[in-house]
Amino acid sequence: MPFLDHVLQQPLYGWKDENNALVTPSNRQIFREFFSRLNLVRSRKNWLPFFSWLKVACLVPFLIIFLLNYTSWWTAIVAFIYGMIIMGTHGTIWHHRYCTHGAYKFRNKFWRFITQNLTINVIPEEIYVISHHAKSDQPGDPYNAQAGFLYCFLADVNHQPIAKNLSENDYSRVKYLMRHTGIRGNSYKQYQQWGSYANPWRAILSWILNWSFWYLAFYLLGGHALAFCLFGAAGVWAVGVRTFNYDGHAKGKDKQREGIDFHHEDKSINQLWPGLVAGEWHNNHHLYPKSARSGFKPYQLDLAWCFIWIMSGIGAVTHYRDYKKEFYKKYLSEKFE
């Protein structure tokens, strides 16, 4: 069986039926799967999806206290910039273009560490990297928009964790896919105990250090008002980012537009808002998934690419792939600039 067919833990409702058609589970089935996989009493191997949502739950009090005690015109603006633009762009820079697609390379571990921790830590790399773009809009796609909003929104728990019964050879392939991220992984024996590449104790320590650093930094810059503002904004982003693939694949419908969307192998679309605030020109990305730049046309501002380009300019990034010239040559008649 091909590696991508069994590397992920299949939900109880399955990926496809006997006719190889996508299984569209009911909301009840989705929620049953969700809460089953968060149950640490049932199995310690559920720790990573539980940990992922624990972070979200821990951000909720920050948001509530911010809204009740620290809301003002300036904190609202700062929250918008941090939660919508900075967190979103960092997700594209780190999780998407580097961890998942290796679109660029760092000079050394120092710059990789700095980039990884540029924002409040929310999403575990393992959940994002291993499952990403395995079978876009096909049965087995962890966030197949054709199966509905909840199917996508709860995918990090229901569909994206790795299988718990991988052979040592297959687990070695998981380690290979994760090695460039800098996350120190479990041995195969530890994987059999915890059901994950990430080690829970190292993950928890990294989380505590990251949040402690950023709370102190925000407090020194603007007191508790700024700290609660930005941690609350991170909580909004943590929930909002889980809606992206559903919208980025047109809610499972065919909404691609001539002259705007050029990749027709799936239902991905270029959207103005995610593109401008986070560099997520999603159809362009599917066209050239390993490109460090996805904003090709003049109006397609790509803040993630701007960061990578600046990092290259100061020597922190030593290599990147940029397919803008190829895009113009293949799809547009205008002269490349």
Descriptive overview:
The chain is mainly alpha-helical. The protein contains 16 helices and two strands. It has a two-stranded antiparallel ribbon. The longest helix is centred in the middle third of the chain and has 41 residues.
Supply database-style keywords.
mainly alpha, Acyl-CoA_DS, 55% helix, lipid biosynthesis, 337 residues
Q: Please bin the fraction of helical residues.
A: 40-55%
Q: Say how many strands there are.
A: 2
Question: In order across it, which strands form the biggest sheet?
Answer: 1-2
Largest sheet, strands/sense/barrel = 2 strands, antiparallel
What's this entry about, in short?
This protein is mostly helical and 337 residues long. It has helices at residues 3-6, 27-37, 47-69, 73-100, 109-116, 125-129, 149-153, 155-158, 168-178, 188-194, 200-240, 244-248, 272-278, 282-287, 303-313, 324-331, and strands at residues 104-106, 317-320. It has one domain.
